[in-house]
Write a structure and sequence with these properties.
Elements (H helix, E strand, L loop, with lengths): L4 H17 L3 H7 L5 E6 L6 H5 L6 E6 L9 H13 L4 E7 L3 H7 L7 H14 L1 H5 L4 H21 L2 H8 L5 E8 L4 E9 L2 H17 L3
Parallel strand pairs: 1-2, 1-3, 3-4
Antiparallel strand pairs: 4-5
Helix pairs in contact: 5-6, 8-10
């Protein structure tokens, strides 16, 4: 199984079907990418960006990592954001988490599993920040869901605070940052009602989104 023949067969069938439906599909795709969207999501194999929103290749610029984190010293993620904002001129950055996220769950259960604990330390900080509010929720499943939502909101804030997004807003570039969450159990996206289009909106919009999370705990 060194060459994974079945995956190459799947690829040929996929490419053939694309050409059958649109003879110039790959010709157009190879010339230039011009997406309006940057998707920052979780690496979870059940959360594929393009399929979830029903968009074809070329429409979504994608970065994924464990638990959809935007970390100050993560040059990989920051490079993606810079390229998307400055070179591709995307109009929307979508931070999308998902319910039942394994990284968030590991933090909520205080498990230690190895190297990735260093990465998940960023989520521990969020848990500590909202510990008093979370402790008032008796249902552990609801706690986990709220923590997944909180993580998205905090990462939206982190995106907005990057120098690239701040610079874009200062230069009056049209750019919105959104916080969404995906439910694997039914395939549906939920808008966490945070959409930030300027630095002046940041503080109020984040605070409002956090209040909304703890207003509905059922």
């Amino acid at each position: 199984m060194k060459v994974l023949k079945h995956l190459f067969e799947n690829n040929r069938k996929w490419a053939s079907n694309k050409i059958k439906n649109d003879a110039d599909f790959f010709k157009r795709l190879s010339q230039q990418q011009n997406p309006d969207y940057l998707w920052i999501g979780c690496s979870d194999s059940r959360v594929p960006a393009n399929q979830i929103v029903g968009l074809p290749p070329g429409e979504v610029f994608v970065h994924r990592n464990v638990a959809n984190l935007i970390v100050e010293k993560d040059l990989n993620c920051l490079s993606v954001i810079q390229f998307a904002v400055e070179a591709l001129k995307v109009k929307h950055i979508i931070v999308c988490g998902h319910y039942g996220c394994g990284g968030v769950k590991t933090v909520m259960e205080n498990k230690k599993i190895g190297l990735i604990d260093n990465w998940l330390a960023n989520i521990h900080k969020i848990k500590e920040k909202y510990d008093s509010e979370l402790s008032e929720i008796n249902n552990t499943a609801v706690q986990l869901s709220k923590m997944c939502e909180l993580n998205v909101i905090e990462q939206v804030k982190n995106v907005c605070n990057t120098e690239f997004v701040q610079s874009a807003w200062q230069n009056n570039q049209s750019l919105s940052v959104h916080g969404w969450i995906y439910d694997i159990s039914d395939g549906l996206l939920q808008d966490l009602e945070v959409c930030i289009t300027s630095h002046s909106e940041l503080k109020d919009e984040i605070e409002k989104a956090i209040r909304n999370i703890f207003t509905y705990t059922n």
